[in-house]
Write a structure and sequence with these properties.
By secondary structure, this protein is of the alpha+beta class. About 15% of the residues lie in helices and about 50% in strands. It has a three-stranded antiparallel beta sheet, covered by helices on one side.
Length: about 55
């Protein structure tokens, strides 16, 4: 499993608001992981993947 850690930033100011993560069973591109996180964000924010790590089951 792969854990993608992302910063949540404002679209206009790029101000850091929070960090979050998503854990997936298969490796995907950083853009795909960010898109999955962005599906649950409030309008006006985006996710930037800052780190990914392998998680043992």
């Amino acid at each position: 499993m792969i854990k993608y850690i992302a910063e949540i930033r404002h679209n206009t100011t790029n101000e850091l608001k929070n960090t979050t993560f998503i854990t997936l069973t298969d490796e995907v591109s950083d853009d795909e992981a960010a898109a999955l996180i962005e599906e649950v964000l409030v309008y006006g924010y985006h996710a930037e993947i800052i780190k990914k790590e392998v998680v043992k089951q």
